[in-house]
């Protein structure tokens, strides 16, 4: 138990406890949403790509028969909990018969795009669309940074196209849409831009610790239509989920981890059919949020773009393509990044130096003001 007397449980414990009840007997809740969002991180290519769908228990059987759990699906972001979750879901009454379909995975270096999504049909007239969050690729993280520059990044445009497509292939369904991390942002963006007719089919949108949007997005009438259907959850030390603008209300959930590791959805504490809710995020999270917002507000779109290009040209030194590449290469990766930095032009170096100095000075100023 924790200090408040709760028995500490996470989404794996929830599946064990709630697994005997189908969605017909107990409707979808915020914990179910996070489970489905986390499941979208697994690679279901060639398993669930058609529109007819395959039951989760059969999909899991093929997944483990092909030993995909021993492959690196999302690099450093992968962990045994994902495979434990898949096994538990396949053995449960609640999840085993849901149909997986329309799995897509697109990576386009030229467009700075990393996109993946999958559809879950929960019963004959209810579907959940899950967008994958940022994976291990530097390309995916670069696209996240570009969200502060562009009104629409390529994966957001892909998310809208995907939603419209699967709504046509499952025309009798009502919809929940969700995702974790960047996937949560894509869910909100797609719902906002689905069009009036399709918005009427959307029951709710779940953004699990995903970044918000530029003000130009949250002030549109299209966003206002779905705003009250958005369920945003962030852990108490959220950093990712507090980025950019969140016009909708958000719920703070308790995590078993510390600091940035609270972004891990497997660390969120569950009590019954919901997360353990807290009154507010931590002081550190508010400081980080204010610091980043102040920095971004002082920079032009061109300055933000230049910083992003400079940062990722350094990270991609020595042909690094993922965070795992950088970690595995160790000192060699650091040496290559320093060499790349030395060869940057003056403007690019200035952009990197300026951003670092702003982060340090604004962070210190925020702490003094609290």
Short description:
By secondary structure, the chain is of the alpha/beta class. The chain contains 15 helices and 11 strands.
General description of the model:
This protein has 370 residues and is an alpha/beta fold. The protein folds into two domains: 11-281, Rossmann fold, CATH 3.40.50; 288-369, no CATH class. The protein has 15 helices and eleven strands. The chain has helices at residues 11-18, 30-39, 56-65, 80-90, 138-146, 154-169, 182-192, 196-199, 215-218, 221-227, 283-298, 301-315, 323-329, 331-342, 346-369, and strands at 54-55, 99-108, 113-123, 126-131, 174-180, 202-208, 230-235, 250-253, 270-271, 274-275, 277-278. The strands form two sheets. Strands 1-2-3-4-5-6-7-8-11 form a nine-stranded mixed sheet, sandwiched between helices. The chain has a two-stranded antiparallel sheet with strand order 9-10. Strand 2 (99-108) and strand 3 (113-123) form a beta hairpin. Helix 12 (301-315) packs across helix 15 and helix 13 (323-329) packs across helix 14 (331-342).
Radius of gyration: 21 Å
**Gross morphology:** globular
The fraction of residues in strands falls at 15-25%
Using DSSP, what is the number of strands?
A: 11
- CATH topology value of the largest domain: Rossmann fold
């Amino acid at each position: 138990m924790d200090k408040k007397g709760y028995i500490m449980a996470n989404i794996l414990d929830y599946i064990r406890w709630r697994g005997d009840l189908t969605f017909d007997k107990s409707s979808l809740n915020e914990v179910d949403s996070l489970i489905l969002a986390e499941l979208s991180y697994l690679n279901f290519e060639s398993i669930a790509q058609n529109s007819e769908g395959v039951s989760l228990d059969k999909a899991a059987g093929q997944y483990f028969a092909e030993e995909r759990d021993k492959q690196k699906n999302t690099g450093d972001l992968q962990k045994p909990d994902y495979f434990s979750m898949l096994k538990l879901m396949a053995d449960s009454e609640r999840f085993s018969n849901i149909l997986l379909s329309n799995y897509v995975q697109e990576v386009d270096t030229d467009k700075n795009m990393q996109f993946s999504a999958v559809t879950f049909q929960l019963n004959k007239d209810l579907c959940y669309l899950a967008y994958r969050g940022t994976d291990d690729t530097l390309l995916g993280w670069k696209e996240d940074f570009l969200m502060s520059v562009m009104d629409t990044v390529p994966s957001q445009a892909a998310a809208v196209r995907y939603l419209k497509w699967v709504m046509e292939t499952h025309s009798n369904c009502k919809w929940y849409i969700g995702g974790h991390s960047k996937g949560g942002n894509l869910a909100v963006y797609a719902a906002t831009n689905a069009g009036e007719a399709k918005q009427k089919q959307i029951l709710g949108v779940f953004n699990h610790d995903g970044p918000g949007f530029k003000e130009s997005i949250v002030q549109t009438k299209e966003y206002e239509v779905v705003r009250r259907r958005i369920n945003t959850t962030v852990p108490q030390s959220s950093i990712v989920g507090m980025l950019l603008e969140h016009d909708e209300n958000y719920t703070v959930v308790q995590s078993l981890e510390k600091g940035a590791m609270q972004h891990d959805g497997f660390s969120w504490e569950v009590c019954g059919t919901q997360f353990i809710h807290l009154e507010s995020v931590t002081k550190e999270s508010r400081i980080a949020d204010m610091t980043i917002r102040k920095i971004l507000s002082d920079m032009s779109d061109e300055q933000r773009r230049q910083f992003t290009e400079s940062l990722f040209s350094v990270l991609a030194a020595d042909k690094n393509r993922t965070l795992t590449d950088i970690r595995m290469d160790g000192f060699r990766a650091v040496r290559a990044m320093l060499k790349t930095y030395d060869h940057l032009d003056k403007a690019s170096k200035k952009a990197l130096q300026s951003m670092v100095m702003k982060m340090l000075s604004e962070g210190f100023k925020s702490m003094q003001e609290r």
